[in-house]
Amino acid sequence: MALCVLTALSLALGYANKARCTGPEFDEWGRSEPAYQERAYGDVCYSDVQNLWIGRDIDRHVFPYVNGGIDSDGSLHGGVVEYPVLTGVLMWAGALFVDTDAGFLAASALLMAPFGLATAWWLGRLSGWRALLWALSPPLVLYAFHNWDLPVVACAVAAVFVVHRWTSVPLRRRATVAAVVLGLGFALKLYPAIFVLPLALHVLTSGRGRWDVRGALQVVGAAVATAVVVNVPFMVAGFSGWAASFEFQSRRQVDLSTNSVWYWGFRHWTGSEEFQSAMGVVSPLLVLASFAIACAVGWLRYERTGTYPWVPVSAAMLCGFLLLHKVHSPQYTLWLLPFFVLVNVRWGWIAAYLLADVAMGISIFRWMYLNMAGEPSGVHDGFTAQALMIGVWGRAALLVGLFVAFLAARSTVDNTGAVGPGRVLPGRPAPSVQQA
């Protein structure tokens, strides 16, 4: 209960921070005035929630995907939003009874806050007092209502909770339920789908003396079936509108809005068509390579300990995605934050990452404001650009370190260590370790 109260206070602070950008006046479209964009950047109260009130037909209460599509220039129309279908429905629901961006922000916050509270409760049940890292963290204040990420984070944490706390249920069955939850997460923001593979490997290696191939396939099948069942009604109702959200992301360019290392490291080349085409291949290949390395290291740990460490492997895979994907929006820190609770990495890693993230999360908007105002914004012109570079590159370096640290660490949700006795092979009895 205390964790939920503390989380509620952080969520309230997060909403108050974003609400500074709303009102006090509104134009004919319900956009906050005066000088909305300047205030959003200059006062560091920008949110995608408020910003996307205009431009996606949200203000017109159009149900998403059914009648829309994507134009040749990449712009969306007809209610299509650039997110998977469940997030689109959530956005539509938040706009139903409001007519201003301020009302949309408030209604969206009310819809998402329960997911933030549920995440706190599950983390508390899983890892005890470490859940304070969620309840009292700066990212929760900065990003809780920056975008629609609290529901998908709740799905990722709920899957871990099902696997590791429904211990009265056989592992195969609870892993299947967790896979369904991860499938729902895919229909919100895609990234929980990457955790299905380590979960399937965890189930595959859980049998005593044999591999549970059927259980692993059941996990994968449950996740895929859930994603299909959720998406098919939208595909049938309006295939072009449904497909437009995926096409939008596939056509997205590496630019300032992506905020990734690819932009900051190669921004002088981002105007080149050849560079953008190369990034469409290089980035996903490197992401997949990081996934393969994480899963392989997890297998080596399984051979030493007798248990596949699916939670640490999932955390490492997420680090690879955040570092190497061509989009790294500020609120993605919320995706990583629960793993600081669920995996026992050293506190220095956590503190350093949170500091780098705060430096980036605040300075990026101040830097954008300086550019908008035409003021000097180079790294030699003041602390804003310097803090931004510290945040961007510090965070990138820490993701590399965390990738390694997660793979070497023990999970806080069980007592399976990073190393242990015994090599487990099919046909041999497994060591006596906890199989939760």
Task: Explain what this protein looks like in three dimensions.
The protein is mainly α and 436 residues long. The protein has helices at residues 2-19, 36-42, 48-51, 85-95, 101-127, 132-135, 138-143, 150-165, 171-189, 196-204, 213-237, 239-250, 261-266, 273-305, 310-324, 333-342, 347-372, 383-408; strands at 25-26, 32-33, 69-70, 76-77. Strand 3 and strand 4 form a beta hairpin. 49% of the residues are buried. It has one domain. Helix 14 (273-305) runs antiparallel to helix 15 (310-324) and helix 17 runs antiparallel to helix 18. The chain has a two-stranded antiparallel ribbon. A two-stranded antiparallel ribbon has the order 3-4.
* Number of helical elements: 18
Distance between the termini: 25 Å
N to C succession of SSEs: HEEHHEEHHHHHHHHHHHHHHH
Percent helix range: 55-70%
Q: Point out poorly predicted stretches.
A: 415-436
How much is the radius of gyration in Å? 22 Å
Amount of beta strand: under 5%
Count all strands and give the number: 4
Order of strands across the main sheet: 1-2
Average pLDDT, to the nearest integer?
92
Report on the biggest sheet: 2 strands, antiparallel
Based on Cα principal axes, name the global outline.
Answer: globular
Structural class: mainly alpha
Q: How many domain modules?
A: 1
